[in-house]
Amino acid sequence: MMSNVKFCFLCCNCLGFAIECNNITVAQYLPMNYFNDFMFISISFASVIEYFLQWSLDHAKIFVFTNNGDFDFQRFIFNCHFVLLYFLDLSRNLISKLPSSATTYNKTRHKHLSVMILSSNQIQTIETHAFEDFYCLVYLDLSQNQIIYLQAHVFGRNLKGLNLSGNQILTARRTSFVHTDLQFLSTEQHQICCMMIHNPSLVCTKLPLQSAACDRLFASFFHFFFIFSF
Length: 230
Known about the structure:
With 230 residues, the chain is an alpha/beta fold. The protein has helices spanning 49-52, 73-79, 190-194, 222-229, and strands spanning 12-15, 18-22, 40-44, 56-57, 62-66, 81-82, 87-89, 97-98, 115-117, 125-126, 139-141, 149-150, 161-163, 171-172, 184-186, 203-205. Helix content is 10%, strand content 21%.
């Protein structure tokens, strides 16, 4: 039975089962199990990132970990034990590489993860099968990165929404999306949408209004309909 937290550290703000911490410089003094009772956790500008790569958070459902500099995404996903987590925000962390999930993924640790935000990082490389084994992932935000190439078999079967806007993707393979059933795709590269003939119901946004390369392209305001319906 989860009990409410009765005290809050000076660098944090607490409300019920939610906690927000900024500018943590004394992480080594926080008990490792301190965050276990929180369902919503937000950490920003932490100076001791290694500490947070060892967490086992049994009750966290929403975890926001932003503005914390460069860290090992592979180690983070592999080590952090989030049994109930369904929303993960790792935006603005200087992440540059997304490795194959074959080396990072553990279904028992992330079996409920439905939304992942990786926007505004420095991602250049997305390896084959990077998200293919995240079976519950339905929305993925990779916007405002530095992605120029999409490998084959990158995304998972249950992915419904994908935000690639703000990237200069020069090369994309049809096989990058072959196992997905995308309903929404946000990108400035209309050729990516038009190549996905296996999915006639796909709606694409973030495109120039004058673009008429194929009949599935819509103006960017459709993006909000998808987000609010999710």
